[in-house]
Amino acid sequence: MIKYENDRFDRIYQGDILKNIEYLEYIKECDGNVEISKIVFPYCIILTQDCDLLQDHNSRNTKNKNQDKYLISVLVAPLYVADQLLLGEHLSFLEIKSQIFEKGKTPEKFLLQNKNPRYHYLNFPDDFLNPMVIDFKHYFSVPIDILHNQKNGNYVCTVSELYREDISQRFSSFLSRIGLPN
Amino acid sequence: MNDPSFDNDLEYSLDSVTKGDIEFRRESSKTSIETNSVYEVNGDLLEKRTELKSGIDKETEQRYFSNKPKRIIIRARIIHDQI
Q1: CA distance to partner chain B, nearest, from residue A62 (Å)
Q2: What is A69-115 written as a DSSP string?
Q3: Cα separation of B56 and B1, whole Å?
Q4: pLDDT tens per residue, range A80-109
Q5: Distance between CA atoms of A117 and A158, rounded to whole angstroms?
Q6: A89/B62 touch (CB, cutoff 8 Å), yes or no
Q7: Which of A39, A5, A20 is nearest to A147 (CA)?
Q8: What is the CB neighbour count within 10 angstroms for residue A76?
């Protein structure tokens, strides 16, 4: 069970959970027609280090000689509803079938105990949200200006610090893993 | 706004849609749930909201069908002003 706060509106924080975050897949133009494809993720968590986010915020709100601390984009990872992910159905609207975690079997237990490096299981107190799973493999970036504009309307909560560090440490570990040949 | 020539009937077939005019995505018919979609009809962008169909209670709908990522495709024609 994690802890969370839901009163941090003043800036983007590491551990913020935001809803309806859009990922732009492509924009193409052909014969005067423009096609834009995007994926809307119902929930995402901010992974960028909080010190970077704080420095960006402070830099934008004070007159500095340079914009050295400005961020261009923010790393996020999607949260999927745990029940849907365990069934391998969480990306069905994108026509993607995923691994099925059979109930009671070892892969499911490992996922729920956060022993699978790819996933991070989040259980919220008081049914604030359905149990969710972060999929570190699906991380992407969002321009920080867009997040600033969306923060007030899309803010859900912020994972409290100790649990946030756990997520951050596991994400960095996932990114830095070394693939060895079979 | 033009009235799209189809309704929420799950028997609706993609074959009846003019290719390129409408982007329509949904869950397979066995789930009895339609996804959100945005589609274009004669230049108007319309949005179809998720429809809860009979036989699925709210809890099941929330647990298994809501809050999934969705793809939205927007098509637009560039119109040049004539000089």
Answers
A1: 37
A2: T--SEEEEEEEEEHHHHHTT-TTGGGT-------TTSHHHHHHHTT-
A3: 32
A4: 999 889 999 899 888 889 999 998 899 999
A5: 22
A6: no
A7: A20
A8: 25
The helix/strand/coil state of A182 is coil
Task: State whether the Cα torsion B26-B67-A44-A171 is positive or negative.
Answer: negative
**For residue A165, which phi and psi values (nearest 5 degrees)?**
-65, -35
- The one-character DSSP state at B34 is P
Residue to substitute from B26, B50, B70, B77, interface A, most A β-carbons within 10 A: B70
Distance CA B74, CA B39 (A): 7
Three-state DSSP state, A40 = strand
Q: In the 8-state DSSP scheme, what is residue A48?
A: S
Take residue A82 and report the two structure tokens written for it: 């745990």
B50 min Cα distance to partner chain A (Å): 12
Task: Output the CA torsion sign for A140, A55, A52, A6.
Answer: negative
CA distance A178 to A173: 10
Q: Measured between alpha carbons, how far is A135 from A117 in angstroms, rounded to an integer? A: 9
Residue that the structure tokens 């993607």 belong to: A96
pLDDT per residue of chain B (83 residues) written in tens, 0 to 9: 333 333 333 333 333 333 333 333 333 333 333 334 444 444 444 444 344 444 445 565 555 557 889 888 877 776 655 55
Show the tokens assigned to A88.
Answer: 């391998």
Q: How many CB pairs under 8 A join A and B?
A: 76
